[in-house]
Amino acid sequence: MENEYIIEMLNITKEFPGIRANDNITLQLRKGEIHALLGENGAGKSTLMSILFGLYQPTSGTIKKNGKEVHINTPNDANDLNIGMVHQHFKLVECFSVLDNIILGVEPTKGLFLEKEGARTKVLELSEKYGLKVEPDALISDITVGMQQRTEILKMLYRDNEVLIFDEPTAVLTPQEIEELMKIMKNLAREGKSILFITHKLNEIMEVADRCTILRKGKYIGTVNIAETTKEELSKMMVGRDVSFSVDKKPAEPKETVLKISHMTVPSKAHDNNAVKDVSFNVRAGEIVCIAGIDGNGQTEFVQGLTGLEKISGGTVSFLGQDITKASIREKSKMGMSHIPEDRHKHGLVLDYTLEQNMVLQRYWQPEFQQGGFIRSKAVREYASKLIEQYDVRSGQGTATIVRSMSGGNQQKAIIAREIDKNPELLVAVQPTRGLDVGAIEYIHSQLVAQRDKGKAVLLVSLELDEVMDVSDRILVMYEGEIVAQLNPKEITVEELGLYMAGAKRDKVPEEV
Predict the structure, then answer these.
(1) Highest mean pLDDT among 40-49, 175-184, 379-388
(2) Which ranges of 241-327 would DSSP assign to H, the alpha helix?
(3) Superfamily of the domain at 244-336+424-513
(4) What is the pTM of this model?
């Protein structure tokens, strides 16, 4: 009888210094199914998939493909077994074209020369068959994140992979791109591909997965059929307690203006037009104002202009009554502005520093942490330990952990801990829950509301419609670099919000919003 499982990972254990990332885990993937792998940040999901893809070797345990034991020592071994992986942080060469990235490592040749035409034809046929629209000659550096992800998927299909691993595939996508990806995954499964899908997002699991395996703190909790379970049951298995999906907050009581943006204009790096066009609004103490919009409508450039990462070409920024338009990043930080950045690797952390060094990146010069030009290591360590415990930042070697080795979600929690603990007057939070599990999202949302209730101003920038509707007191919709609406989340529906975000509707916005 033919084995019903295409992949079996049996009793897998993986130990790193100071941590057992996988503790006797068994995972079985059926042919043609979409199998979700669910767990909190640092539960061991990515480690388990990295073992299957040959990036790590298990300390103990067995892997079988179609019932036969296999040894996967490198990603090339995985590819030879028709196993492919789309990583959370894409593995693409930015200065290469889409086509060059897809064929990289398996380049078709005729004699000593590259023979790209056949490859181009195959890529276009695959993109047509699976609904993966790409522009083969576009450079990776010039295309959207959603297009980059489609390139990664085509890389797997070009190599005829039959087992496809998706690691947090929706963490960097817009709602529309997520919907498209869900359709693509269903098409792939219908074509007989077997998919392993790592995610924190319960709605996505309920929509596309056939079965789900849950891990908690490196241990196997169970495998369930999605048709026979609920979001609430999955979240309880994952976190070990009941999780609230609604944000508990009383009505806002806005006070004095903390941030005043007047006619801000920011140039675009990608084209000649401005990315942010004549934007004006206020954020007051004691309120959460959310900038909502589809990715790529100027939110990134706006935040970079506000925080000092980019120069603005027009308009002014006033903070606590002072003009800070030309102030440096450090000056803004010292005045009481905190920033949870969109790209945690580029702007949030120094990846090869320890966790404790990252926790004091913006405060190491203060007397509390230095004396006579020397860092007071004990004080830094004690401070970092306090934040790690308070925000449940999980790391193998505590404060001495190199941040690069931590899971994405725990890297995010470290940034949030550092920025909120500065006790800022204004917290600029850009995608603060990206890549976090439901338990961590619940905690971060409560922290944002707590800042508001302490009389602080919070400017939230989010692509998550549920987050926009649940957390904000006031919504400003940004479309093509302009504020096109000011909305009250209690008075509109998600569908209406979507129309404004897509540019199908717009209101005249008063300047003093």
Answers:
(1) 379-388
(2) 299-307
(3) P-loop containing nucleotide triphosphate hydrolases (3.40.50.300)
(4) 0.72
